[in-house]
C-alpha cells in the first residue's frame, strides 16, 4: 500500500457521511474565521476614532497680550479639535465630563482651565508658567482608549507649543527689526557725531595753531617789555635833568635873543639915520646947485659906501630873528622837557604795569596753548571713539536681521517647530490590520493544522498492521493534513486579499510561503500526535501558547524577556512571520529563503520523527490497545 493510497483512505474515512463532510468543511474554515475575521475587525481602527465619544471642557477666560490683542487659546484649541474630527468631541461642563468618564459615556475628557491663555502669555511678562491641559481617563472604559487619548494630548501640546513658540519668535524677530531701525538711527547719529567731532578737532587744531604763535609772541612781548622796563627805570631822573638843562638853555637863549634884538634895533636905527643923512645930503647938494646927475652920482657913491653897513644891518636883523626863533624853540623844548619830566614817572609805571600784564598774558597764552593741545588730543580721542562707534553701529546694523514679513513668518514657524520628521519608509503595511496580518496568518495556519488532527489519525492502523514501511506510513498520515491545510490556506488567503482587501506586494510568493508554512506546521503537529498520541495534542497547544509570546508578531521580538529568546529562535512561527512580512510588505527577499529553508527543515525533521513513531508503533502494546487518555 502506497503513501498516497493510505492518505486517500484516510480522507475517504473522514468524509464518509454528511456530518463528517461538514466537519471537514468546518476544519477548512477555522483559519479563515480566526485570521480573516480578526483582520477585518481590526483592519484600520484609527479610521473610526471619530465614533469614540470624548468630552471637551473649555473654561479658559482668555487674556490680553502686552500689545493689547485679545487671546483665546482655549477656544482656538477647541475649534481645532472639533474641526479635526479625530474623536466625537462633545463640549460639556466639568461636572458632566467627570461623571461621563466615570460611567462610560465618554472614553476620556480634555479640560482647558480658565487661566490657559494667561499662562501661555506669562512668558511675555517674565512671570513664566506652563499652561495646563487636564486629561481625565478611566481604564475601565478602555485601556487603549486612554493610551490614544494621551497621544492626542501630546499632539495638542505640541501644536500649542508650536503656535506659542511661533508667536514668540515672530515678536522676537519683529523686535530685531525695531532694534535694527533704532540702530540705523543711532548709526546716523554717530555719523553726524563723528562729523561734528572731526570739525571740532579741526577747530581745536586751529586753536592750537593760533595759540602757539600767540603764546610765542606774548612771551617775546613780555621779554621786550621787561627790557624796556629795565632800560627806562632811570628815565624819570634823566628826563628831569633834561628838563632842567633845557630850562637853562631856554633861559640863555632868551637872554641872547633879547640882546640880539636890542642890537638889531640899534642897527636899524643907524640904518634909518643913514637913510635920513642921504636925503639931507641930496637936498643940500640940490640947494648948492649941483645938478641932479651930480646929486645922483653922489648918492650912488654914498649908497656904495654904506653897503657894508646895510649888509651888516641885514645880518644883524637876521641873526636877531634866528636867535628869537632859537629862544622860542628852546622855550618849547624846555616846556616839553618839563612835561616829559612830569609824565615820565607815569610812563615808567605804565611800562611796569604793561610788563606785568604782558607776563601774565604770556603765561595765559602758554596755558591756552597747552589747554588747546589737550583739547585737541581729547577731540582726537573723541573723533576716534565716534568713528569706532559709527563703524561699530554700521557693522552691527548689517548683523541685525531685518527679515521681510514672509521671511519673518517662516522663520518664526521654524523656530516654533524646528524639527520636522521626514519619514523614509522602505516598506509600509498600510494599516493596523495589514501590520498584524503576517502574525495572524501564521497563527491561523498553526491553529488550522492543530484542529485537523481532531479528525485525522496521524498514522494508518491498517498500514501499521500490514507491516508497511514506516516512512510510507508517516507520509500517508501527513499528506491528508497537507491537502486540507492547503485548502485552508487558499480559502483564508483569498478572503483576506479579496474581501478584507489586504493585498500583499508579492501575492503568489505569499501564497506559496503560506502553503510551505502550513505543510511544515502540519508536519510538526502530525509528528507530535504520532509520537505522543493525546499528549501530543496538548504539546501542540502548549507550543501555540509559547509561540504567541515569542514570535514577535505585534511588538519587536527583541522586547520579550531575554530568557524567552531561545523560544523565538527554536520555534517555527517566528520564521513564518518574518518571511510573510517581507513578502507582504515588499521588503528585501534575501531572508525569505532562509526562513523557507528553516521551515523546510522543520518539515523534514517532523517527518523523520513521524517515521520513527510509525516504526515504533508496528508493535502493538496494551497501552495502544487501551490508552489511558483519549482526546
TrEMBL record:
Pfam families xref list: ABC2_membrane_3
Signal peptide location: none
Origin: domain of life: Bacteria
Keyword Oxidoreductase included in the entry's annotation: no
GO annotations of cellular component type: membrane
Annotated membrane topology: Multi-pass membrane protein
Keywords: Membrane, Transmembrane, Transmembrane helix
Annotated ranges, domain ABC-2 type transporter transmembrane: 386-611
Main localization of the protein described in the UniProt heading: membrane
Protein location: Membrane
Residue ranges crossing the lipid bilayer per the database entry: 21-41, 436-456, 477-499, 511-531, 538-557, 596-615
Example GO molecular function: ABC-type transporter activity
PANTHER family in UniProt: PHAGE INFECTION PROTEIN, TRANSPORT PERMEASE YVFS-RELATED
Name of the protein in its database record: Putative membrane protein
Protein species of origin: Saccharothrix tamanrassetensis
Amino acid at each position: 500500500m502506497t503513501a498516497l493510497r493510505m492518505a486517500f483512505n484516510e480522507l475517504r474515512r473522514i468524509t464518509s457521511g454528511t456530518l463528517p463532510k461538514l466537519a471537514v468543511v468546518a476544519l477548512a474554515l477555522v483559519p479563515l474565521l480566526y485570521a480573516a475575521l480578526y483582520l477585518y475587525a481590526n483592519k484600520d481602527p484609527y479610521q473610526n476614532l471619530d465614533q469614540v465619544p470624548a468630552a471637551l471642557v473649555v473654561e479658559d477666560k482668555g487674556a490680553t497680550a502686552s500689545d493689547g490683542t485679545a487671546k483665546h487659546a482655549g477656544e482656538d484649541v477647541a475649534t481645532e479639535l472639533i474641526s479635526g474630527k479625530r474623536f466625537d468631541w462633545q463640549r460639556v461642563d466639568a461636572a458632566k465630563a467627570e461623571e461621563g468618564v466615570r460611567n462610560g459615556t465618554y472614553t476620556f475628557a480634555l479640560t482647558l482651565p480658565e487661566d490657559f491663555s494667561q499662562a501661555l502669555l506669562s512668558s511675555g511678562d517674565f512671570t513664566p508658567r506652563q499652561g495646563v491641559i487636564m486629561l481625565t481617563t478611566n481604564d475601565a472604559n478602555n485601556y487603549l482608549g486612554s493610551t490614544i487619548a494621551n497621544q492626542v494630548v501630546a499632539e495638542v501640546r505640541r501644536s500649542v507649543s508650536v503656535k506659542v513658540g511661533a508667536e514668540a519668535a515672530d515678536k522676537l524677530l519683529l523686535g530685531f527689526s525695531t532694534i535694527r531701525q533704532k540702530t540705523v538711527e543711532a548709526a546716523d547719529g554717530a555719523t553726524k557725531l563723528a562729523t561734528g567731532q572731526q570739525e571740532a578737532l579741526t577747530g581745536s587744531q586751529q586753536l592750537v595753531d593760533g595759540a602757539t604763535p600767540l603764546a610765542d609772541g606774548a612771551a617775546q612781548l613780555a621779554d621786550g617789555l621787561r627790557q624796556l622796563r629795565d632800560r627806562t627805570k632811570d628815565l624819570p631822573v634823566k628826563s628831569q635833568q633834561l628838563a632842567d638843562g633845557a630850562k637853562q638853555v631856554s633861559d640863555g637863549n632868551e637872554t641872547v635873543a633879547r640882546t640880539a634884538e636890542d642890537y638889531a634895533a640899534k642897527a636899524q636905527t643907524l640904518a634909518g639915520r643913514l637913510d635920513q643923512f642921504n636925503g639931507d645930503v641930496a637936498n643940500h647938494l640940490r640947494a648948492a646947485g649941483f645938478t641932479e646927475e651930480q646929486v645922483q652920482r653922489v648918492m650912488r657913491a654914498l649908497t656904495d659906501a654904506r653897503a657894508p653897513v646895510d649888509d651888516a644891518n641885514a645880518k644883524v636883523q637876521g641873526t636877531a630873528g634866528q636867535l628869537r626863533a632859537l629862544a622860542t624853540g628852546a622855550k618849547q623844548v624846555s616846556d616839553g622837557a618839563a612835561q616829559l619830566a612830569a609824565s615820565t614817572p607815569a610812563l615808567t609805571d605804565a611800562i611796569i604795569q604793561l610788563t606785568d600784564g604782558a607776563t601774565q598774558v604770556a603765561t595765559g597764552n602758554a596755558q591756552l596753548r597747552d589747554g588747546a593741545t589737550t583739547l585737541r588730543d581729547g577731540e582726537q580721542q573723541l573723533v576716534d571713539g565716534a568713528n569706532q562707534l559709527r563703524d561699530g553701529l554700521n557693522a552691527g546694523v548689517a548683523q541685525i536681521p531685518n527679515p521681510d514679513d514672509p521671511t519673518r513668518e517662516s522663520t518664526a514657524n521654524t523656530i516654533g517647530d524646528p524639527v520636522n520628521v521626514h519619514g523614509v519608509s522602505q516598506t509600509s503595511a498600510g494599516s493596523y490590520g495589514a501590520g498584524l496580518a503576517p502574525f495572524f496568518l501564521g497563527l491561523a495556519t498553526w491553529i488550522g493544522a492543530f484542529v485537523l488532527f481532531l479528525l485525522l489519525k496521524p498514522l494508518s492502523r491498517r498500514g501499521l498492521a500490514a507491516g508497511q514501511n514506516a516512512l510510507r506510513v508517516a507520509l500517508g498520515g501527513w499528506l491528508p493534513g497537507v491537502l486540507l491545510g492547503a485548502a485552508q490556506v487558499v480559502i483564508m488567503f483569498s478572503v483576506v486579499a479579496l474581501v478584507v482587501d489586504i493585498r500583499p506586494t508579492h501575492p503568489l510568493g505569499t501564497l506559496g510561503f503560506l502553503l510551505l508554512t502550513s505543510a511544515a506546521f502540519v508536519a510538526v503537529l502530525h509528528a507530535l500526535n504520532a509520537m505522543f498520541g493525546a499528549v501530543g495534542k496538548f504539546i501542540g497547544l502548549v507550543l501555540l501558547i509559547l509561540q504567541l509570546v515569542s514570535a514577535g508578531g505585534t511588538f519587536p521580538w527583541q522586547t520579550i524577556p531575554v530568557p524567552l529568546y531561545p523560544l523565538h529562535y527554536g520555534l517555527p512561527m517566528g520564521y513564518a512571520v518574518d518571511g510573510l512580512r517581507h513578502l507582504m510588505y515588499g521588503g528585501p527577499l534575501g531572508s525569505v529563503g532562509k526562513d523557507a529553508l528553516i521551515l523546510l527543515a522543520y518539515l523534514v525533521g517532523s517527518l523523520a520523527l513521524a517515521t520513527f513513531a510509525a516504526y515504533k508503533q508496528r508493535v502493538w502494546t496494551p497501552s495502544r490497545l487501551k490508552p489511558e487518555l483519549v482526546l
